[in-house]
Amino acid sequence: MPRTPSSPNDLDLFYTSVSASTTSSMVALEMELFSNFQFILLTLLMFLGGEVFTSMLDLLLARNKLIQNKLRSINPSSPSDESPTNATHIELALVSIPHSKSQNQTLSDNVASVRLKYTCLRYLTYVVLGYFVVVQFVGFSLVSLYMTVVASARQVLRKKHIKVVTFSLFTVVSTFASCGFVPTNENMMVFKKNSGLLLLLLPHVFLGNALYPPCLTLVLMVLEKVTRKEEFSQLLKNSNNLGYRHLLSVYRCCLLVGTVFGLNVIQFVMFWSVEWNSEIMEGLNLYEKVVASLFQVSNARHAGESVFDLSSISSAILVLFIVMMYLPPYTTFLPVREEEDDAKRKRKSAVECVVFSQLSYLAIFIILVCMTESKSLKEDPLNFNVLSITLEVIRQGTAYGNVGFSMGYSCARQLKGDGSCKDSWVGFSGRWSNKGKFILILVMFFGRLKKFNMKGGKAWHLS
User: Which residues of 393-423 are buried (b: 16+ CB within 10 A; e: fewer)?
Assistant: First the structure.
């Protein structure tokens, strides 16, 4: 049970669970209310909901589908109700079905091609699994060591009664999964002077997000050089033919690295120029300002962890963050088009003609939330405003793992003072009505499944 005598709202508990499994980091309850066991459960949900882990399931399904399709193509006359037990004992290399002599060579080539593709998928699954485990284990070990050695960081956890192991595991998994949850109520604000901790977490912001494809390609290049195996060479040469959307060509990876670096430089320069001497930077020296600013802007397209209070950041920077959150994870400066024949481009299915673009759906969700929260928009405009709602919705419906930024809620900003109002470390959406929270749960799932609607809205033309 949570570390509080009061019983949390069931909807808030469900809301938090959905948020963790969809890596949305929507905080409806103060994080420090959860027990150590509940932190472990949330860690498991984030672990299973992360993009890298779910992509491994795609690879396993692709391998099984490859076998089934090949068996059907080799023996199309086989009964559809054939025992699945028998099928599982058929090795690709050992399929032997009578054919005419003229077909023997073609069949042999097809089987060899499918066998190579199957082996490539198997190797890729092992590489992704190794990457997934090693990166997080190294991160967990380094963060645990830092929290144990550095007294100031250790003291924070001791005051909050949070175990070092729990904090390290929870935070690394959350950062790698691009969730943005942190066991402390203040997120990373309480550690903004611990530049070493921020620098240890910063690589995980990228390794599980926009720079995952370049890092995966780099690992495959190293393995290909070391092992000289044909499978790794094929993975690099035929990255587009395997159906694994995170495996990009070397050229595309170079563009992606340049884009990520460029966008972060733009954000850093703008954030630095606007907020350098602002109130949020008080008490930080030059080095701490640079590291904290870099950590903050890097999280705008990624995990969404915050070292500064977003409600105190200027509106211009918030708009910049909204734009960055909306950009797809593999955005590149130069367009990279997949080859399609003209006939395919001209055809539009009935579904494509009615499906909206992602921006259209986000606009609809924002309008619906404004309708459900219309009373608060009128009575509490400093907390409830369209910019705050837009930030909250867009951070869930876009980006790679649903960026975890939120402007929060402050009783001090109420126009009409309410004696019953009590400040708490929850996200802005935690103060919404149940109807608004339900809509945002739908947005969480929409954001997590957005890859199925990436090409929506093509039937609409503005002129």
Answer: bbbbbbbbbbbbbbbbbeeeeeeeeeeeeee
* CA angle in degrees (0–180, nearest 5) for 325-329-334: 110
* Rounded CA separation 251/254 (Å): 5
As a whole number of angstroms, the distance between CA 46 and CA 49 comes to 5
pLDDT, tens digit, 9 for 90 and up, residues 317-368? 888 888 888 777 788 876 655 444 444 445 555 445 445 566 777 788 888 8
Q: Where does residue 228 fall: left (phi above 0), alpha (psi -120 to 50 degrees), or beta otherwise?
A: left
Distance CA 418, CA 453 (A): 43
Count of Cβ atoms closer than 10 Å to residue 426 Cβ:
20
The answer for residues whose C-beta is within 8 angstroms of residue 386's C-beta and 6 or more apart is 366, 370, 377
- Are the CB atoms for 383 and 431 separated by under 8 Å? yes
In angstroms, rounded to a whole number, what is the distance separating the alpha carbons of residues 459 and 348?
8
Nearest-Å Rg of the Cα atoms of the chain is: 25
Q: What is the pLDDT of residues 92-117, one digit of tens each?
A: 444 445 555 555 556 565 666 778 88
The whole-angstrom distance between residue 392's C-alpha and the CA centroid of its chain comes to: 16
- DSSP string computed for 24-38: ----SS-GGGS-HHH
Token pair 């399709």: residue: 69
Residue with tokens 């091609």: 113
Residue 49, both tokens? 């909901």
pLDDT digits (tens, 9 = 90+) for 241-269: 788 889 999 999 999 999 999 999 999 99
Give the list of residues 6+ apart from residue 119 with CB closer than 8 angstroms, or none.
231
Percent helix / strand / coil, the chain, rounded to 5: 65, 0, 35
The answer to whether the CB of 177 falls within 8 A of the CB of 50 is yes
Nearest Cα neighbor of 284 from 295, 293, 271 is: 293
